[in-house]
Amino acid sequence: MEGPPVPVPDSALPPKPAVTAPAADPAAELPTDPELPAETAAETPAEPPVDLPPAETAAAEPVEPVVPADVPGVVKSPRPLARPDLDIEAEAAAQAVAAALAGPETVEIKAADLPSGTRVVQLGAFDSPEEARAEWGRISGRFEALMAGKKRIVQEAASGGRSFWRLRVSGFKGVEEARQFCAALVAEGANCIPTVIK
Known about the structure:
- The protein is an alpha+beta fold.
- The chain is 28% helix and 16% strand.
- The protein is built from six helices and five strands.
- The chain has helices at 26-29, 38-42, 88-102, 129-142, 144-147, 175-187, and strands spanning 108-109, 119-126, 151-159, 162-170, 193-196.
- It has a five-stranded mixed beta sheet with strand order 1-3-4-2-5, with helices on one face.
- The longest helix has 15 residues, at 88-102.
């Protein structure tokens, strides 16, 4: 069924493209004198640009919304929820890193609690128990694999009228294991002497 053509309203047609003047080629306007070098010809000033009437803009006509307001559906774009103040995943990752850097928890025992003849190694003698514990932290950080499962002993002793504190390590099955432990530390420049609890 063909009938007379139906007129299309202007608002349904796409906007007309803006009319602009073609860009002038500045090199085409330069005088070409075979006597002048190319560099000098390029420095010759070009003619001033010609004023053109302003181009038509598509924004001049009011734009109708894509979806009319009377169509059912989303009236307002949903807004995402605000981020929490605390990033739970970042906090968990930070705690895991801190736990990994802290290493295993140090267990300290008293020398009096060990039976006589127990194999231990001595890492040094210090002027205070705090210095001895600080040295344990330094050595256990440096030799983490060797210190795994070992226990710290900070034992007070006296000699020549003054007190000092021995830093010892417990957790060896026998004399051979204690000697191998000390050999590994001494090879890396640390002090270590196998001994026994008396």
